[in-house]
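S.,

Sequence below, as promised.
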Amino acid sequence: MATGQFHNAPITKFLVLATTGFSILNGVLKAPPRLLTITDIVERPARAARLFLLPWTYYSAGELLFGTLLLYLFRVFERHWGSPKFAAYAFTSSISSLLVHLGLFIIFKPLPFAQLRPGPYGLVFSLLWRYIVEIPAISKFSIFGAILTDKIFVYLLAIQLLMTNPPSTTTAGISGLLGGIIASAELLQLHRFRFPAFMESLARQYILPLLQTNTRPYTVTPVLNANLAALHAQSQEQMPSSLLGPDSANFEGPFSFGALRAARQQAQAQSRPQRRPPPPNAADTDGPQPTRRPQASATVSEDNISSLEELGFERDRAVEALRRHNNNVEMAAVWLFDN
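The prediction came back faster than expected:
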C-alpha cells in the first residue's frame, strides 16, 4: 500500500493491521481458528471465549485478501465521518451483526448455517450497506449490452468474499448486511451512539498518535471525498468529453477522481491571466472605433447554486464561481476550494 494512504483513517489502519496480524499468526502457528458451532457455545462455555477472537482472524488467505481490501476501500467513511463516529459505527454494527448471526444459529440449528465464521464480516458488510445506499456512481460503461457503473468492482469483491466458503461465509456476509441496516436505522437510534468522552480523550492521547500517517497523500482539495463524488455524479453530463476519458480510471478508494483532477487543472488554467494583444493605436486607424460590448455572463442554475451552498459556500461566491466556469458545478467547486 502506498505511503500515506491511511491518512485521516487511523481506525481503519488498526483494523487492517490487526486482522492481518492475527490471521498470519494463526497460520504460522498452524492453529487456524476453528469454526464455532451452537454446540460449542451451549455445551462448552469455555470455548465461547473464542467469540472475542472471531472479529480479528480470517480462516483462509482468500478471505484475508478480499476482506482487508474491502476494508481498505471503505476507509473513505472514516475520512468522511471522522474517527470517533467511525469507531462507534464499527462497534454497533459488529455487535448487531453478531446478534443476527446468533439468531440464525437458533433458527437454523439443524442446518449447516449454525456456524460462526471467523473474520470481521459484520463490519465489512455493514460498511458495504452504507456504500450501497450513500455512495453515488461516478461513471457508467457497457459490457455485452449491460450498463454497469464503477461500483461493480466493489460488488464483485464482496461477492467473491461471500462465496469463499459457503454457506458459512455467505451467512456471515448476510448477517453483516442486516447488522448494517440495524445500526443505521432511525428506529433504534444506534447511529447516534458515541463512546464516552474520556475514552475518546485516551484514544487521542495514547493510541491514535501511534496509528497516524505523517505523509500526506495528494488530494484534489481538502474536502470530503463523498461530497465531491456526489458533485461529480450530478455534473457528469456537463463535463467536456475530453475530461472523462482515461483519466477517470485514476481513482482513490472506491471513487474516481481523475476527472476532478482534470477539472482542477482546467480551472487553474482559466484563472490565470492571459496576455492580450495591445489595442491598436487610434492614430493608425481611420474612422471611429467600434464600441465593444461586455461579454454576457453565463446563466447559472439554482440547482448548481444550491449544491455549492450545501458545501458551505455563500451564495454570492457560488454564483461568481459558476459564472467563471460556464455553470459547471464541479469546476466551480474546485475553484472555490482553491480560492
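Residues 52 and 118 are 10 Å apart (CA to CA).

Coffee later?
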